[in-house]
Amino acid sequence: MSEVIRTVVVPSVGLTEKKLMVFKELEELYRQILIELVDYGFRNSVDSFTRLKRDKYRELRGRYPHLPSHYIHTACQDASTRIKSFNKLRKKGLAKSEKPEV
Q1: In sequence order, which residues have a C-beta less than 8 Å from that of residue 46 and are 6 or more positions away?
Q2: CB neighbours of 38 closer than 8 A, spacing ≥ 6?
Q3: Fewer Cβ atoms within 10 Å of its own Cβ: the N or the C terminal residue of the chain?
Q4: How far is the C-alpha of 69 from the C-alpha of 8, rounded, in Å?
């Protein structure tokens, strides 16, 4: 019996250059927030999402009031996942760097 693979193509509206720049700026902003959270969490041995959010959420919301709150929330989740994963790899001796990379 052969396996059938299907692909769904969803048409979307083309992005203007202005909209594309907004997405790129947003992506870079998220990356900066994520780097800060990963660095903070790794330096302070914080890999729990709850503690990371407790320690940094208000500070980041104050610094970036124009961003929707779920961006900071998601960045905290992402950072804690990256830190936990790195710690597991480091414990097994499989980490390729000194600290988690973003």
Answers
A1: 40, 52, 55, 80, 83
A2: 79, 82, 83, 99, 100, 102
A3: N
A4: 32
pTM of this structure: 0.83
pLDDT in tens, 69-101: 999 999 999 999 999 999 999 999 999 999 998
Q: Which of 20, 31, 18, 17 is nearest to 64 (CA)?
A: 31
Cα three-residue angle 95-98-101, rounded to 5 degrees = 80
d(CA 92, CA 61): 36
Give dist(CA 71, CA 26) in Å, integer: 10
Amino acid at residue number 62: G
